[in-house]
Amino acid sequence: MRDARADGERLRSAFAAVRTLAGVRTSRTALAAALLALVVLDDRVLIPSRGWSVPLLAPLDWTGHLATSAIVLLAVVPAAVGRRSRLALAALVASVAIDVDHVPLYLGWTDGVGGGRPATHSLLTPLVLAAAALALPRARPLLAALAGGVLLHFVRDVATGPGVPLLVPLSEENVLLPWSLYAAVLAALVALVGARDLRERRAARPARALRVREPV
């Protein structure tokens, strides 16, 4: 195990060195902006362009969900791209996997709430996962990430299609917000990522200057 960890550290160090020599710097801002552009392309060009069948529409929608979730994680949990990448991956998977509850609808076994999405597309699902996280300390990080992933799914669903029955079983009314508000929130999050990147780069410049001036 120690040898594997040591090998992993050496590989990461070598990759970082290659990136430094090549002058390549990964920009979270560029990534977030590209993801936002993908959401706009998805919702305003590809999906409305034709009447897609469910097997073809689903991947387009999942792409939008993954892009939305990644933007939120980059803005709100920047550590998700580093030390907590495994939990971030779990959240991303959950942000798409929750749509498995649509299968009974498509098979005609049940109806959605108010003619829309299933009852499991409500706050009850992440609350159940959060309760399980409290009850199971060993699985708490994973279950919390899954709960967060479901909430990330709702960020998009609340502004697309028929909306989301968030308050089931208290209410079966679908909550639907304007798509423009959804896009504005994502744009604000991208701006937040950009502001953080800019601040980090400015803070790193004096440190680099000091290292250059140190005597050999």
Q: What is the H/E string?
A: HHHHHHHH
Percent of residues in beta strands? Answer: under 5%
Largest sheet: none
Q: Provide mean pLDDT, rounded.
A: 85
Q: What's the Cα radius of gyration?
A: 21 Å
Report the helical percentage.
55-70%
Total E-strand runs: 0
Q: Assign the structural class, choosing from mainly alpha, mainly beta, alpha/beta, alpha+beta, or little secondary structure.
A: mainly alpha
Distance between the termini: 37 Å
Total discrete domains: 1
Provide structural commentary.
With 216 residues, the protein is mainly α. It has one domain. The chain has eight helices and no strands. The protein has helices spanning 2-22, 28-46, 54-76, 85-97, 103-106, 124-135, 140-157, 179-213. The model is unreliable at 14-25 (pLDDT under 50). It comes from Motilibacter rhizosphaerae. Pfam families: YdjM. This is Inner membrane protein. InterPro entries: YdjM-like.
